[in-house]
Design a protein that fits this description.
heterodimer; A: mainly alpha; flat; B: mainly alpha; elongated
């Protein structure tokens, strides 16, 4: 069993799983959970891609 | 029951509830989601089990570093504590990673993070199960 995920794939999967867990951990009602998961996922991706671009000038 | 008898009975009830809460917390650590399942919080139980299982499965599949007790430095010890947080899944990850870790590639490094995140998340879920059993969380 081997998984060769790219950086983007790994980040997407990680962000989705952690967002779902946080949503279920911190919210009780289904609609609130969905909102929290969507918001958390968006922030994960925004910060991940943002930090990636911020590091770009130093990558070479 | 008189006021005095109520006051005397209260600590016994509290200590029983506390013991139950600790048992739920430990159950949740050993088997992700079990602490919530025992309290009939099915949604949370299934979610935590599935999320921790996928993180461990993918982390081991990417050949992430699963730390052991003979780490040698502080980071390895912290990594071991985080990995142990997955409870029973630590043994599953050991079994899945029969070939050992391979962090010479980037995906091996990602796998290490997935395994550590699974452990920390499970510890958080176990703490939530403990708090819920004490009546502090809904």
């Amino acid at each position: 069993m081997k998984f060769h995920l790219s950086h983007l794939q790994a980040m997407l999967l990680f962000a989705l799983l952690i967002s779902i867990a946080f949503g279920f951990l911190s919210r009780r009602r289904p609609l609130e959970r969905v909102k929290y998961i969507a918001w958390s996922l968006l922030l994960f991706l925004l910060f991940g891609i943002g930090i990636g671009w911020a590091m770009y000038p130093f990558s070479r | 029951m008189t006021d005095e008898a109520q006051i005397a009975a209260a600590p016994a009830v509290d200590s029983k509830r506390e013991a139950r809460a600790i048992a739920f917390g430990i159950a949740g650590w050993l088997v992700p989601g079990l602490g919530h399942a025992l309290q009939r919080m099915w949604g949370r139980a299934i979610t935590f089990f599935a999320v921790v299982a996928v993180l461990v499965f993918v982390g081991a599949g990417m050949r992430g570093n699963l730390f052991n007790s003979q780490g040698g430095d502080a980071f390895a010890t912290l990594g071991y504590v985080a990995d142990l947080g997955t409870g029973g899944f630590y043994l599953l990850a050991k079994y899945l990673e029969a070939g050992g870790p391979d962090v010479s590639h980037a995906y091996g490094d990602y796998g290490t993070r997935f395994l550590a995140a699974a452990g920390v998340l499970n510890l958080l879920a176990a703490l939530h199960a403990y708090e819920a059993a004490r009546g502090r969380k809904g």
